[in-house]
Specification:
Elements (H helix, E strand, L loop, with lengths): L1 H33 L16 E6 L9 H13 L5 E6 L1 H9 L4 E5 L8 H17 L4 E11 L2 E10 L10 H4 L10 H76 L1
Parallel strand pairs: 1-2, 1-4, 2-3
Antiparallel strand pairs: 4-5
Helix pairs in contact: 1-6, 4-6
Amino acid sequence: MVAAARLRRAQEKANASRPYTEKIRQVLKHVAAGAGDAVHPLLVVRDVNKTGYLVLSSDKGLAGAYASNLFKEVVPQIRGKENAGLITVGRKARDYFRRRGYRIDKEYSGFSEKPGYEHAAAIAKELAERFEAGDYDEIYLVYTEFRSAISQQPVTVKLLPVEESGQQGGEAGKGRQEYIFEPSAGEVLGLLLPKYLETVIYGALLQASASELGARMTAMGSATDNAQELISKLVLNYNKVRQATITREISEIVGGAEALK
């Protein structure tokens, strides 16, 4: 009941953030492609020696296969890679990867069910600093996309460096938009790129929150149904044993009365 009450609000937030998140991603790709020689540190493409993964999981359990499905999405990508670093959100991801000896560079917890924009801003700042410092040459975001209360799908999205659109030929090149930058392309990108990171991460946090609550509601609903079924079986068995005991006692009383005669 608690998960169901929170799910509605989380679902509304997730659905409301999706169009803005998709639009800012689309606009940034076009702007980055049209910026010409203006290169921002978050757009620099380097040889990939170190890869970072931002994994959004839950702080609590009792959510069915929510966490395990997410880990199945992440583990094949980092298995055997010594150059892979993890930034985890949620205690479940932190504990899972720590027990298995994976390198965790940064961890966040305590807000998986109710994420705020300030949480996304802090994570985005951490990622940007690590990317600019060369700790990571590329960064991926792994989270659970909310589709419905009974359907959640783990997905992997490339965060940095931002892939520019319009560089390929064909339709992508034809659809490229031209922009006039004021005061300069570098300053516009300097403001737009951090906002892009914060928005995408915040949208993913909202999606993960709704997915967690939906999975928990489904899991607890199944647990309640199973418990009620078990209770029904136990009550039936109890009544059978009670009836057998009463029948046996009546038989003993009748037998004793006949013996006295």
